Each structure stands twice: as structure tokens, then as C-alpha cells.
């Protein structure tokens, strides 16, 4: 555990523990501050300043304390060199071991500085550390080491109600506020330390400001590390536990409300005032944390079980040396018998049955074998249908939520997850990118859409196309039989670009509206993406179109109270779908480029939760179709999944002046797509991990001309070979071989 505190890069460090606060509270019940000062020779009116540093043990006076002496030197000269009218000061250095010459080294330094005798003292970690902290009027943290965790000694000092002065280390500033719970000074700056120290002194006594700092620090220290500790344990559980695809996932860590320790669980132990928790060992931690450790209890229980198993085994028959000697003979005999039986079976004539039985078994095996080019009942039923809805799923746990019939077809994001005896589309076989688990997880359902759009004519030949997540049935927003009938009849009569959707955004997540806080499209997107949706979308949109920083890059979305699509539950014309995929591929590539350029390794721009990092882009891509449909001028119609009633949302007449048509124009998007295809074809990649070429077809005019030239060359080669063959027949003639020759 020592190295885990020193090196968080190689260990998963969980900061914080109630042990320090627990030990201080127990110690305070049995000890009185001024009684301890009297026993150790400190007067009641003297101001005791305890200088502490890193709590790690050293055999000699450490460099840490040598630096501290350099910083504290001006204070010692000012307050401990003579008896001042401002009061009497005693400086106590808490470090090392009381038997290793620390005191002699400190007294030598005090003599060189001309300090009064007894103004500087030394106490070691092998003594009563809690008592030294309780006697203090001011605690000065003089360490120069930047530790990985919040220093345990500062936690104890704050819990005792002692005002603390500490360097402005990041780990300390993360938990306490400057001028509210502690006073900071710049490291290796004696002048800054003197100014901070003077704030605690007024007319030779502790100032009112110091007492305010001490009181606020005591309240802060009690539950300061609770939230961080609970969060780290929750992160461990996220990485250890694997939930099935149908399981209701726990909420994100960001929603944890645990801000204090459950002190009622410790109160009985604190009231007992056991002596184990009152002491600190040489590492600056309480011995109780090891004596009462859950690990030790588990180890004790494990040892007890081993002992019981050994006692039980002793009562059973043990294997003797004679048994080991006979074992090779037994194995050799069994091997000989096995070989002999195999040879006998090879020599015996086997009966394979009649030819009718053989033929019947062969036909039966062919009938049960599903060939890729065969058409099953589902495909035959879909013949002539104007629309097909692809239900996207990623695991066998989603099978009960999938629909059957001519309107639906499954789309499996994993080859191993396909339903047996079905014609579900294997997205991995159509898009090689989905072979990589990382991209399959962060793209989610839209990765399946990319696979359908990749050479779409090979799999989808209908004028309308739709999609739906398997989660729609679980959330009771999938289409009823009557709604399906309305949809099929409506698309046959529809003219123009229309997007029909039936999964309402407000149904996705259980968020409610109230009069004081009306949820807009972008605020809902922020909620679903950890508060980072607008920033990430704006940055990705800006990079996609190469917009300068002063140009607005977040498309406006209306606050007209209309519905927005969710769960990828929508239907549109196939050409419109291909245009949407063309836009989505470029947007996903820009979003991935921003995420790859992040300073943090394996980071996610849209979430800080480990669980949500795995599906980083999923929630924002789920809402992307709304932005595209609104600003490209598509008519958006909400289809009630139960009754089948239709209602237009965000009418086009009201969008005028708000739509960014110039960015969603098909000609512009097609030109951008061809530019990217030309760069990919020439091998001119803008970055090492360029995602766009892997998300679908790469096609531009140069590729078309090259393919046409290749077809023409093959045609001319075929004609040349035919001419050569005819010429050989005319010149050399054709001779038939003689019979029997």
C-alpha cells in the first residue's frame, strides 16, 4: 500500500478513508488539550507551531525537512530568537524516529540560528502523534513532495480543529478552499509563508481569522474524501462487472449523491474508544486501519477454511508410495487395451445400411443446412413491400424484443449474436470496421446503418427504409399492429421527403418537464451526454466544415414544444437515408478526430464515466437525425406508436429564417464526400487514424473512370484472345484425333 500512494500510475489508488477522522474523534474523547501541553512542558499562553512533512519514514533527517527548515527559517528567526512582546512561540518538528538523532540535528540548527533554548523541539512518529497534533495551535505542512493522495496528517489536524498552513499543491487545492478551510503559500517561498503565518497571529495570540479557519476546516475534514472514495469503488465495480445486454444498467457515477460517511455505522466503535485506533504508526496511518481491515478479516477467514480442509483431508485415505508405483502400470495397461480395440474395429466389416437410407440422410442434412443464397420465408414475405424496418441489436439477450413479419428484419452488430434460422443481416460482414470492438461500441446503432448504406443495392431494393433499436420494445414505444398498417398505407401515398418517427425523445430517459425549467433539444442532449453535448457538437461541426472560430457552429433548434426522434425509430425514403448517412459519416469522422486529439488517453469528450466511455458517441448520434432532418428541410411527422395517428412536428413554414440550408445542401455534401474519397484514394490521409474511409464506400469520379478503363481493357483482351483463337483455327486447321490413337 505504500507504493500505491507514491505511484498512482502503476496502481489504482482509492483516496480517502474514515480511519483518520475516526481515530481523532476517539482520541479527543479520552484526552484534553491543555493537560497534554502541561505534561509536555508547554505553557498555556505559548503558541505551539507543529511543523509536519511527508509521513513516510526516513532513517536520517530527510531532504524533505531540510527544505522545510529553509522555508521556516525566517519564521524561526522572527518568533523564536527572542522573547517578544507579541508572545512566546514554540516550534515542534514532527518527523522520523525519536531515537535516530533527529533531535540533535534540529538543536544544532537552532544553535546556529541563535534561537532560544527550548524554542525548537522534536517528536517522532513512533510516539503519540495524535497528542502532538492536539497540542498545536498552528500546523504548518512544510513538505516539498507532491503526493498522490491528500496528506493524512493534514486531515487529522483539521479534524482536531487546528488551523493549517500548507503549500499550494494540486491534490490539496482539489479538496479545500483557499482562505476558507486552510491558508496556502507558494512552495519554496519563505516570504509567502511569513505573510500566511502573520494572518494567524494577532497581539501574540491566535487571531479570530485563525479560529474561523480552524472551525471551517474541522467541518470540511469530516466528510471531505467520502465522495471521491465512493466514486473510485464504483468505478472498480464498473470495470469488473459485465452486465448482459438486456440488463438495466446502473446510473452513471456522476449522479452519485453520497457526500458523507455513514458515521452511524462507526459510532458504536468510536464510543468504545478502543486503543488501537488512537495510535499512528511510522507511515502516518492508524494501526486500526490494519488491525480492523476487511482484508485481514477475509485473510483470517480464508486461513480458517484452509485449516479445516487440511483437518478433513487428514481423516481421508491418503495416497501412499505404493499407489504411486502402481499408477504407471495402470496407465500403460489402459493405453494397450485402447489401441487393441481400435485395431479390431478397423478389421471388422462395417454395415452402412441400404442406399435408400444413405440417400435419405444426405437429403435430410441438405434440408437443415441454411445456404446464404437461399431465400427464407421472411424474405419471400417482404417481396413487393414498399418499406423494410431494420431492428438493430447486439446480443442474444435482445432476441425476445425483436419483431417477426414482413415489415421487419433484424440487423446484428455482432456475427455471434445473429438469431438462428433467420435472414438477419450481419453488419460485420458488410462493414469491416465493426470487426473492431472499440468502434462497434462507440458507434452503436449508427454503425449498423453504415453497414446497410455500404453498397445498399445489394441488400435493400425498396423505396423506403427504416430503423429501430431493440430497446424500443422494452420501453413500450414500438409500433402496434394498427400503427404498422397506418405506416404501410401512408408511405405508399406520400410524395416528397418526409421522415416518420414514433419514439418520442421525452420517453427516452424518463426526464420530465416543469414550468420553471423547460427542456429544450440541446439541454436534453446535454443531460444525455454528461453536459458536453453542445460543446462537442459545435466543435465537430466547425471542424467538419472548416469554419473559423468567430462563426457560430451550433445549429439552432426550435423551442416550439414539438417532438424529437429517439431510439433511431424512424422511416424515410432510401435516397434521403443515403444523404443522411453521407452527412453522418463526415460528422462522426470529425467527432472522432476531436476525441483522438484530446490530451487524455482513452478519453471521451461526451462523458467522464468509465461505463459511458465505452459507448462514447451513441447518445449524440441518436439525436443527429433530428438536426439533419430539420435543417435539410425534411418534413417531420410523429406517428403515435399505439393509435397510429399522425401529427406534423416543426412545420417547414415556421422554420424559415432558422434553417442552415447552406450547410445541409446535397450538392455541398456530395462535393465534400468526393473530396474525402479522392484524398483516401490517393493515400493522402489527414491523420494516422482516419475513420471516414472505414465507414462506407469510397467513390469519386477518378475511381469511376479507372473502373471503366479496367472494364474496357478486359473487354479488348477478350476480343484479342478470340481473334487469335479464330486465326489459329483458320491457319493451322482443326484435326480430329484418330479413334484409338
TrEMBL record:
Source superkingdom: Eukaryota
Identification of the protein by name: Glycos transf 1 domain-containing protein
Species this chain originates from: Citrus sinensis (Sweet orange)
Amino acid at each position: 500500500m505504500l507504493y500505491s500512494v507514491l505511484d498512482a500510475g502503476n496502481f489504482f489508488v482509492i483516496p480517502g478513508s474514515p480511519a483518520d477522522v475516526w481515530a481523532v474523534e476517539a482520541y479527543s474523547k479520552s484526552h484534553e488539550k491543555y493537560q497534554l501541553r502541561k505534561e509536555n512542558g508547554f505553557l498555556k499562553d505559548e503558541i505551539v507551531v507543529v511543523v509536519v512533512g511527508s509521513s513516510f519514514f526516513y532513517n536520517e533527517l530527510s531532504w524533505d525537512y531540510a527544505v522545510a527548515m529553509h522555508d521556516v527559517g525566517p519564521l524561526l528567526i522572527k518568533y523564536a530568537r527572542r522573547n517578544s512582546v507579541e508572545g512566546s512561540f514554540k516550534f515542534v518538528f514532527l518527523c522520523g524516529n525519536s531515537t535516530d538523532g533527529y533531535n540533535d540535528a534540529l538543536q544544532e540548527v537552532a544553535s546556529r540560528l541563535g534561537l532560544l533554548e527550548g524554542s525548537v523541539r522534536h517528536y517522532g512518529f513512533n510516539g503519540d502523534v495524535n497528542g502532538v497534533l492536539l497540542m498545536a495551535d498552528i500546523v504548518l505542512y512544510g513538505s516539498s513532495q507532491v503526493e498522490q493522495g491528500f496528506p493524512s496528517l493534514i486531515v487529522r489536524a483539521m479534524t482536531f480543529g487546528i488551523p493549517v498552513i500548507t503549500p499550494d499543491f494540486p491534490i490539496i487545492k482539489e479538496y479545500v478552499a483557499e482562505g476558507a478551510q486552510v491558508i496556502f503559500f507558494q512552495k519554496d517561498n519563505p516570504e509567502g509563508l511569513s505573510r500566511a503565518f502573520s494572518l494567524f497571529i494577532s497581539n501574540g495570540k491566535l487571531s479570530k481569522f485563525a479560529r474561523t479557519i480552524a472551525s471551517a476546516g474541522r467541518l470540511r475534514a469530516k466528510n471531505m474524501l467520502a465522495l471521491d472514495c465512493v466514486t473510485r469503488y464504483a468505478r472498480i465495480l464498473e470495470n469488473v462487472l459485465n452486465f448482459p445486454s438486456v440488463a438495466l444498467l446502473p446510473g452513471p457515477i456522476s449522479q452519485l449523491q453520497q457526500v458523507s460517511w455513514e458515521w452511524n455505522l462507526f459510532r458504536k466503535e468510536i464510543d468504545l474508544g478502543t486503543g488501537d485506533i488512537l495510535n499512528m504508526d511510522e507511515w502516518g496511518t492508524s494501526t486500526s486501519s490494519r488491525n480492523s481491515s476487511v482484508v485481514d478479516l477475509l485473510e483470517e477467514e480464508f486461513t480458517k477454511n484452509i485449516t479445516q480442509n487440511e483437518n478433513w483431508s487428514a481423516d481421508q485415505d491418503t495416497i501412499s508410495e505404493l499407489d504411486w508405483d502402481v499408477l504407471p502400470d495402470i496407465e500403460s495397461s489402459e493405453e494397450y487395451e485402447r489401441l487393441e480395440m481400435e485395431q479390431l474395429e478397423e478389421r471388422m466389416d462395417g454395415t452402412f445400411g441400404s442406399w435408400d437410407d444413405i440417400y435419405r440422410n444426405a437429403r435430410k442434412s441438405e434440408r437443415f443446412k441454411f445456404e446464404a443464397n437461399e431465400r427464407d420465408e421472411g424474405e419471400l414475405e417482404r417481396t413487393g413491400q414498399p418499406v423494410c424496418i431494420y431492428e438493430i441489436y447486439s446480443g442474444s439477450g435482445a432476441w425476445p424484443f425483436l419483431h417477426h413479419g414482413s415489415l421487419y428484419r433484424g440487423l446484428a452488430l455482432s456475427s455471434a449474436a445473429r438469431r438462428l434460422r433467420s435472414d438477419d443481416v450481419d453488419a460485420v460482414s458488410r462493414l469491416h470496421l465493426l470487426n473492431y470492438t472499440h468502434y462497434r461500441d462507440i458507434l452503436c446503432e449508427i454503425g449498423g446503418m453504415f453497414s446497410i448504406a455500404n453498397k445498399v443495392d445489394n441488400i435493400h431494393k425498396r423505396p423506403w427504409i427504416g430503423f429501430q433499436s431493440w430497446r424500443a420494445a422494452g420501453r413500450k414505444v414500438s409500433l402496434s399492429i394498427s400503427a404498422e398498417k397506418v405506416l404501410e398505407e401512408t408511405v405508399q401515398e406520400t410524395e416528397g421527403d418526409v421522415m416518420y418517427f414514433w419514439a418520442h425523445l421525452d420517453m427516452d430517459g424518463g426526464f420530465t418537464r416543469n414550468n420553471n425549467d423547460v427542456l429544450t433539444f440541446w439541454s436534453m442532449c446535454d443531460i444525455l451526454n454528461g453536459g458536453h453535448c453542445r460543446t462537442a457538437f459545435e466543435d465537430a461541426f466547425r471542424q467538419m466544415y472548416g469554419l473559423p472560430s468567430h462563426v457560430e457552429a451550433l445549429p439552432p433548434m426550435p423551442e416550439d414544444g414539438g417532438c424529437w426522434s429517439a431510439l433511431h425509430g424512424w422511416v424515410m425514403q432510401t435516397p434521403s437515408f443515403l444523404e443522411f448517412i453521407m452527412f453522418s459519416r463526415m460528422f462522426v469522422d470529425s467527432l472522432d478526430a476531436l476525441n483522438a486529439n484530446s490530451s487524455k488517453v482513452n478519453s471521451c469528450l461526451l462523458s467522464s464515466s468509465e461505463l459511458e466511455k465505452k459507448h462514447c458517441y451513441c447518445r449524440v448520434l441518436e439525436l443527429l437525425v433530428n438536426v439533419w432532418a430539420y435543417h435539410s428541410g425534411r418534413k417531420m411527422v410523429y406517428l403515435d406508436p399505439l393509435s397510429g395517428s399522425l401529427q406534423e412536428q416543426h412545420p417547414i413554414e415556421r422554420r424559415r429564417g432558422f434553417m442552415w440550408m447552406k450547410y445541409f445542401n446535397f450538392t455541398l455534401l456530395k462535393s465534400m464526400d468526393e473530396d474525402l474519397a479522392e484524398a483516401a484514394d490517393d493515400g493522402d490521409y489527414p491523420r494516422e487514424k482516419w475513420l471516414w474511409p472505414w465507414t462506407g464506400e469510397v467513390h469519386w469520379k477518378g475511381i469511376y473512370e479507372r473502373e471503366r478503363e479496367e472494364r474496357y481493357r478486359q473487354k479488348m483482351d477478350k476480343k484479342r484472345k478470340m481473334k487469335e483463337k479464330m486465326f489459329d483455327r483458320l491457319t493451322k486447321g482443326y484435326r480430329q484425333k484418330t479413334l484409338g490413337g
